[in-house]
Structure formats: structure tokens, C-alpha cells
Amino acid sequence: MHAVPAEVGTRTSVPSGASSGILVRKARLPNDRRTPAAARALVRSVLEEAGLDGLLNEALLLTTELSTNAVVHANTDLDIEVTADPSGLTVTVTDFAPGPVEQLAVGPKNDSPDIGEVAERGRGLLLVDHFASRWGTVHEGDGKGVWFHLDQRGAAGEETGRLPAPADTPSLGALTGLLRSGSDRQTEEGLTDLTDLAADLLSRLARLTGAAGGVLRVDRGDGMGRQLLARYGRAPRDNADTIRVPLTVHRPYSGELELDAAPVGYAQSLTVMVAERFSLHLENDRLRRTDIRRQTWITFLAEASELLAQSLDVNLTMALIPQLVVPRLGQWCAVHTTDAWGRLQLAAATHAEESALAQLHASLAEAGPESILARLEEASRLGSQVMFGPPLEGFAVPLVARGARLGTLAVGRHVKHRHDADEVAVLEDVARRAALAIDNARIHDERRTVARTLQASLLPPALPHVEGIGFAAEYVPTGSEVGGDFYDVMPFGEDRWLVVVGDVSGKGVQAATVTGLVRDVIRILVDDGKSLKEILQRVNRTLVQRGGGRYCTLAMASVTRQPDARLSVCLHLAGHDRGVLVRADGKTQFVGEGGTALGLLETITSPDAEVILGPGDSLIFYTDGVTERRRGRELFGSARLRDAAAPLAGYPADAMAARLRSTTINFSVEEPRDDIAILVLRNDA
Cβ distance 676 to 611 under 8 Å? Predict the structure, then answer.
């Protein structure tokens, strides 16, 4: 029977002449590794129902081949149609991969007893061409596929038209075992045990071809070169005829199957078939391992970003970067930053071997045109990756954030392998994240410095030193924003002093502006000789008019020395917390009467309270940063402050302020959320 071209768009199916007793089954199967098994089950059921059990082995073998090719190469769902009639069995496998419509061909069964002499219709159809009575291709709509027909066996058990094969032709069972080898070697992660699979394929191939031995070598692109994966029998001899077939895999993988057999008969074709089958498993292994590695790198980058984001300290951030890189991404790592003149300065470095750290520092400090430092300066200047050779082989990437070049990140290669493309990409990503973290830390440090400088300008540089009266203050700023807490002590006439402790609502530059306004207005009014009540009213009027909606709580006290060495204190509280009076004998009490906070209403009430401080007595002023210090849901509170102050009776003012500050800070491990201001007035007579 000669090849007969079929019309494009038509389907060549069951041969004519068998109009009765036809059994047809159709199914659409998903693009899944279990699809070949499902296709075999469908064919088996049709054969059993039609009573064609004699065709079972050939039908299952060819169905496996076609369905596996559709899943692996077309990578689409597939349609399978199984038709049984008295003349035999026809199976059609159609995939939906895009491609040009080609001339359909229907051909007779290949009668050659030697598989190696089969006409070149594609190695994927080698078995179909050898075992099918006839076969062809089919195109319908958006699908294209292959069909084969197996004739029913005659009474003698022979298939119609089949020529007896020579004794040395591979048996059907042997070929089936060769093709299905490895299907049961997958781990729980979906990976195939390549070593066992390669050994099994080599042994089966050698037995089929009569080869004395064979080897399979694989290079995974990890710098270790081509490694022996499996070996069967003796190693191929250099001076003997051998069959060498390269593995069809994507970079960086490569490999070769070498068989100690002459390239004659079907040995060459079977070796190519085995090489292609193993290549599919190897490529699948590469893709899965690549996917696992990339998922691991994504997790690593997420963790690195979280760690870098937790630190806003410049030095701590730069010290953390090499620890993230070594040893996971390199043998050593160094971070250099640029100074004000653009010169690189070593900020942090680490080595996987601690004993080599001193030598690393020495090498990084060397100067000269061929030194590592020169290469790092080139990377910083050009803003691109540069390589450097032994003894500290590796590469460097620039640290760039918001368009500014901050320095370089240098990484040394591992001892046993070079950095692959994924590792280089991850390191470049780490460099971007590290540069951003360094820049954020620098910005935060600059903001903190500005805030501290501005805050210091709102506080007196030093409290006055007065014979017989002790003044002491402690101030704890928080964060990188200026707070609204302030204090001041100033002369208020002859032998009189004015003590002020206040808290402006909010934070930031606007709060600092209002704080400076309140402080300056009070000093001007004191210089003008105004009374306490008039000072409070003027400050309130100023805040209502110019405070921008902000208010201020204020504790203001005039201190007058009495002839009997006692101190007379006239205390006004404008919405502020009451002061704590500590007697010389350790007894404590709250003093002062609450008034109206300044800046909220046009008129205010501010009752005064008279307090007499005997020798050794103290009066403690504070802001809400003390009482609202948190430990979880618990507040420090004014009662705890009073209890902490009682044992401090008899201590000088500066010691009392320092101890109260320490007690407040140590109440919680958390950073203070609000500024803390404490001022102590003590009668030292």
C-alpha cells in the first residue's frame, strides 16, 4: 500500500468496509502527567469490550507514545478517539498546539525488520511507524494529531500483513519497559531520581543493543564541569566505535550519553531515543529545581528586606548587609560607602572563614591600578557591575538609591562554584534594597539630628545656679520629630525665680514653632514685670490668635526666698498635671489646682496654690510623657511617680531628676512614645 495524501481539513479514520460492529469512544484529557495512564485505560476498556485482547500490548505502547508526545511537546489538552471494529483498532490522538497546516499523509505499516532503517518521519513516530499496520496525521479546526490502525490477528495469531521479525529485533516488552522506565521514580516533591533512572536506562539500552557498557555525564552549570551520573558495564574505550548522543536540555545544563557499541542497525536509533527520554526528565528536573530555587530566593529577599527595614541606624544597617550575603551568596562580602569627597571608605566586611577576615581587610585596603579598591571605584564611578580576579575573585555592584551613588557592594565567589545568573540577579536585588535601606537610615539620622538641634534651641542651655536653691532637669526626646515639651527657669525679680514646665500639643515643626512662641512670650512678659495671672492670660490670647489651633498645658511657679530660709512657691496649673511635693522626711503629696489649658478658650481660669518648701523639701514638675509611659496596656501613672519619688528625699535635685528619669525609662522595654521632661526644685538651705 502506497502513501495516499489526504485532503487538508478532512479526517482519515476507520477504513471503509466495516459498517457494522463499530465501537467508538472519545475523551478530552488535560495537560497532565497522568494523561498517558488515562489514555491507556480508555484503550484497554475498548479492547476488552470489542474482544481485541490480542492487540493490547501494541495498542498500549503506541497510545503511551502519542499521548506522552502530546503532553510533553504540544503542552496542551488532547482529544483521544478509540474505534474498534472487526478489522482491528484505530486510535487518534489530537493536540491543540498552534502551527501551520501541513499536507496530511497516510502511509502503510513499515515492514522493515530493522528499526534503524525506518524512513525519517520524526523519531517521535519511530514506534508508530514500526508497529502500526498503517498510520497518518489529521488536522481538524484548531487541532492536529496522529492516528494509527492495528489489524486484527489471524487465526495463527499473526497480525494481517505482518512480517516475522528476526530474532535480534527488540521485543515489544523490552521496548515498552524502556519507554516506561522512570515513571515510578518521582519523589514527593515531584522530582525524579535521575541517578537511578540513568542507571536503569543504560542497563536496558545495553541489553537491547548488546553494548559492553555506557556512561551518562551531566553538567549542571554549577562550575563543577561534566560529572558522571551513571555507568553500566565497562567505560567506553577511546579506540573503539562508540555512539555519542548529546542531551537536549537548556542552558546551563548539558550532557552526553555514550554507548560502547557500533553505530549500526537499531543501536543508534535506540540510543537517540533513550537520550531524548532522559533529556525530558533532566529538563523537567532543571525546571523544577529552578522553580524551587527561585521560590527560595524570593523568600530570602523578603526576609532580607524585613531585616533591613527594621534598622534606621546607618552603622547597624551597613554591618547587617554582609551578614545577609555570607555565606549564602558568597565567600566574603564588603560594603564601601562614599564620603563627602566621593572617595570610597570601607564600612563593613565579613568572611565565611573568620581566620581569613584580617587578610580580607588587608587586601581591600591595598591601593594601585590593579587593586580591588580601584575596581570598586570603577564600579561606583560607572554605576555598573565590575569583575575582579584572584586572589579575591568576585564582582562588585554599585549601591544606588534615589539616583544617588552611595558606594559599592563587593561579593567573593564561592570556593567550589561560580555565581550563576540567578545568584547574580539576587545579589543585584540585594544591592538595590541595601542601598535604599542605607539611604533611609541616613535620612532618618539627618532628621533626628535636625530635630535634636531644634529641640535643644527650645530649652535653656543650663539652669541658673542659685545659692540655697537647687534646680535640675532631665529631658528625653523621642523619634526624629521635634516634641512640644519644654521647661525654663528665669529670674523674676529680686530673690525670686520663675519655673515653667509646659507641653504643646502635637509634634513636628509646627509644634516646635508654637513652643518657641510660648517660651519667648513668657520671657518678654517676665522682663516687663507682669504678674503670673497676666502672663497666663497674654499667652492664652497669643495662642488663640497665632497658635494654629494648637494648645498648651503649663505649670508655672514663682519661687521666693523667705528670711527664715524657707521657699514660698506660688503655683499655677493651666491644664497641667499636679506637681509632687516631697518632704525632707519622705512624705509625698500632689499639689496644685487644675486650670484651663492655654489656647482653647478666649478666657481662662487659673487658681493659684501656695506651697512652702522647708529645708530639704522638693517640688517635682513633669510632663505627660512620664505618666503616659506604657508597658503594654499599663501606664506608669502619677501614683507610681509619687511612690518612686518618696525614697529620694534628701537627695540633691540633680540626683532626684536623674533617678526619676531612669525609673520612667526602665518601666518599659519599648521606646518612649512621647517626650519626657522632669524638673526638680529643691530647698538646699
Answer: no
Any idea which residue has 503655683 for its cell? 571
Q: Distances from the Cα of 60 to the Cαs of 40, 80, 113, 172, 180, in angstroms?
A: 6, 13, 21, 11, 11
Report the amino acid identity of residue 498. L
- Residue 389 has which C-alpha cell? 580576579
List pLDDT tens digits, range 269-295: 888 888 888 888 888 888 888 888 888
- Predicted confidence at residue 464, as pLDDT, reads 92
Burial 467-494 (b: 16+ CB within 10 A, else e): eebbbbbbbbbbbbbbbbbbbbbeebee
Instruction: Give the position of cell 537647687.
Output: 470
Compute how many other C-beta atoms are within 10 angstroms of the C-beta atom of residue 384.
Answer: 11
Burial class (CB in 10 A: 0-12, 13-18, 19+), 165: middle
CA distances to 95, 198, 247, 255, 281 from 185, in Å:
27, 11, 20, 21, 11
Rounded Cα distance, 451 and 508, in Å: 8
pLDDT at 592: 93
Element (H, E) at 53: none
Q: What is the pTM of this model?
A: 0.56
Each as own residue / partner, the long-range contacts of residues 637-640 (CB below 8 Å, 24 or more positions apart, any chain) are 638/577, 638/578, 638/580, 638/590, 640/667
Measure the CA–CA gap between 398 and 382, rounded to whole angstroms. Answer: 9
What lies within 8 Å, CB to CB, of 247 at 6+ separation is: 218, 253, 254, 255, 256, 257, 275, 278, 279, 282
Q: Which helix (H) or strand (E) holds 523?
A: helix 509-527
Q: Which residue type does 573 have?
A: L
Specify the amino acid at residue 99.
G
Element (H, E) at 9: none
Q: Cis before residue 327, ω within 30 degrees of 0? A: yes
